[in-house]
Amino acid sequence: MIDGIPVNSTPLPNASVSDKKIILLIEDDPFLVGMYKEKLEMEGFEVVTAEDGVQGLSFATSQKVDMILLDILIPKLSGIDLLARLRQDENRKDIPVIALTNLSGSVDEEKIRSYGVKEYLVKSNYTPGQVVEIMRKHLV
User: Which GO terms describe its biological process (predicted)?
Assistant: First the structure.
């Protein structure tokens, strides 16, 4: 349990059954979920989605995830709070996270970056194809 949220923090397996990278998309806008899920799957990724921060944190701490695309303004647990809690988990603290947000020039950007996000992307400035290119730079 991290700050009252149940999590299952078991060590990550060394290899997955599939060679596909698993992307956890945490986004509450159904249109964007559909658009990004379709693009990522077309690019060969396995995509799992969560519509709020509690669901996202639970999945991230109980399943193998290669990268997280994280909206910051999400219900139940903000992206900032999710990041703070994820970074407390020894087995998951190094999962690469890309913040995908509508918050341009936000005061929160500095705080989000302090949690080690790989990129801070304003949604309106990037196409899904550009986001995939950026993701590939950070996937090992």
Answer: phosphorelay signal transduction system
